[in-house]
Amino acid sequence: MRVRLVGLALIAWALAGGVFGCATQGAMKRSQADLQRIDLRLGLVGERLASLDSLLLLQQAELRDQRFEQAAAGEQLQSQLMQLQARVDESARRLGELREEIELLRVYGVGKAPSRASESAEGERGPTAQPALVSDPQSLYDMAMADMKAANYQLAASEFGQFVESFPEHELADNALYWQGECYYAERKYEEAAASFAEVEKRYPQADKIPAALLKLGFTRLAMQDTKQATKHLNDVIRRFPDSAEAAQAKTKLKSIGRRR
């Protein structure tokens, strides 16, 4: 009986081992199949990555080409713009010369104004008739103002001077003399500017432009590094015209340069 039991146990153990071995082999086959599928997927992902890398490199190359082309086009455009600007500047210069010729014709009626050399030669030969001037004072004054606003200061200063010489008793004569000084001041011709500003009160002691003329005379002396005279003129404005706008400007200027009244 005991022998039979042992035999049955051995038979059961053998059967169990066979079943376990079959199960292990099946699991291994499934694992191998899973690994093969994973390898296949990894291969597909690798191919896609390689394709993306190739596309990226191609796009980068195209972007570099576009940048090179844009840079070249930009340089060409810059060159064209510089050439165009040069032509515009030249046209503006020629237009300015032409406009000056036209204005001088309007003022003198006979082309360009006589030069200093020709005036000197005429002076040695004796007095001669002066060039014809614009006969209407308002037209001459308006012409000078327009030239000053257009920054044609040299021409405007000449026209304002002609106004004062031709129409010294006109109600705008003091204004013309003052604006002549402003034109000189704008061109940094400070000696001429100071003379014009000072002449306003000398020739027209009751003029409305005296406060403005004294103020700008002070500014002009400052530009000439003559602080002592500048301070004197600015204080004159404050003392003589205390309630004027020019007096307020004079106070501000004196304060800015550290001068007391």
Question: Can you describe what's shown?
Answer:
With 261 residues, this protein is mainly α. It has a domain of 121 residues: Alpha Horseshoe (Serine Threonine Protein Phosphatase 5, Tetratricopeptide repeat). The chain has 9 helices and no strands. α5 packs parallel to α7 and α8 packs antiparallel against α9. About 10% of the residues have low confidence.
Unreliable stretches:
107-132
Strand residues, percent: under 5%
CATH architecture of the domain at 136-256: Alpha Horseshoe
Estimated radius of gyration: 49 Å
CATH superfamily of the domain at 136-256: Tetratricopeptide repeat domain
Largest sheet: none
Order of helices and strands: HHHHHHHHH
Q: Mean pLDDT across all residues, rounded?
A: 77
* Shape designation: elongated
Which range best describes the helical content: under 10%, 10-25%, 25-40%, 40-55%, 55-70% or over 70%?
over 70%
How many beta-strand runs?
0
Q: What is the structure about, briefly put?
A:
The chain has helices spanning 2-108, 116-125, 137-149, 153-166, 173-186, 190-203, 210-223, 227-240, 245-256.
